[in-house]
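Q: Is it fine to ask for two folds in a single conversation?
A: Yes, each is treated on its own. Send the first.
Q: Here.
A: Result:
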Amino acid sequence: MTEIIVVANQKGGVGKTTTSINLAAALQKLGKNTLLIDLDSQGNATSATSPKNIEEQPTVYDVLMGLKDIKECLRI
């Protein structure tokens, strides 16, 4: 069964990114397939979970602008 979990709050600095990263990691450790989508303009979840050459890879921005397919942006 697929479940969607959203961590959202209008206020900044309340731990949304930290919670999201740790929740995704914990679910993955339990053997669950996880997809963490970083829609924050600062991209901290992406930078915390991605390799160093992140500037060279397509992002969710490219998907939203219709420049790339979502499958091209997945990092496994």
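Q: Second one now.
A: Result:
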Amino acid sequence: MKLSPGKQKGLEAVSDARGIIAAAAMDQRGALRTPLAKARGIKPEEVSDREMSEFKSAVTRVLSPYASAILLDPEWGLEAAKLRDKNCGLLLAYEKSGYDNTQPGRRPDLLPLISARRLKEMGADAVKVLLYYTPEEDTAINDAKHAFIERIGAECAAVDIPFFLEFVGYDPAGGDEKGFEFAKKKPEIVARSMAEFSKDRYLVDVLKVEIPVNLAFAEGAKSFTGPKAYTKKEALEHYRRAAECAGRPFIYLSAGVSNEQFTESLRWAAEAGIKFSGVLCGRATWKDGIPVYAKGGVEALENWLEKDGIANIKAVNECLNAATPWYAFYGAHSAAEVAS
């Protein structure tokens, strides 16, 4: 498979010298505003635009020298984008935060004043879209989501920019996605979702995927709390089966777990022999800085990031020694080999 010049250039821009995507995620909106409000004892709508931008800017300024790229949003992240390290690429989010809760199926929507072209004009090296998705959902709902992703893929192809698709599983019946019952279903949901969006019709360039198991329910994990959903042997096989479903390079997302659990998950991926191409890691790196900022302001946050935030991102980066360059997925030895 060959990539267009723009897609090849964009993927190189968000990768390190090894061709690994060691990216930080700071595009959270509701997932930042809500815990920040809680830490301050106020309502989410009382968190100001300035505070949202200031937090993102501090994280970007301190952590981007340790990342191959940073993911930001065009709502509060553009000032932060200007502060990133000169060697750090830029991904910009295209979707609205959250999902439409006025109808069933966690349907997505895009920012109304944004397009793939506009994101590229803002300096993005790649476009990212988050989709809540499960193969267990109603067929008509999923068909609408498939068409939605087809449109975005075509739009990104038209302006020649890489398309990163993040999909997050859920329970259509409303069950707890962090609970035991969902943990048993998760490997199948992740694997089937990876197979679906690897299809050529979607024009996705990189899959941003969940760890296919929840280590809180994996026997033998340091993160294990019980009960047991799978043995370690079974968990490693779930990693392998999901990876076999990938028809595109894929990277892992941290999904809001602790840094310790995420890095352990990456070590298990390495032990399973998975050819993942990196990470796009957000809250596992910086979420413990939220109460620090809420109580002490931006200077306190920057001090925390300089110590704990950098330690967290370095711990993730160490796990990427086992990662495989994204271009190797295409049987190439360099990014230039996959350019058309």
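Q: Anything structural to flag on that second result?
A: Two points. The longest strand covers residues 126-132. The two ends are 9 Å apart (CA to CA).
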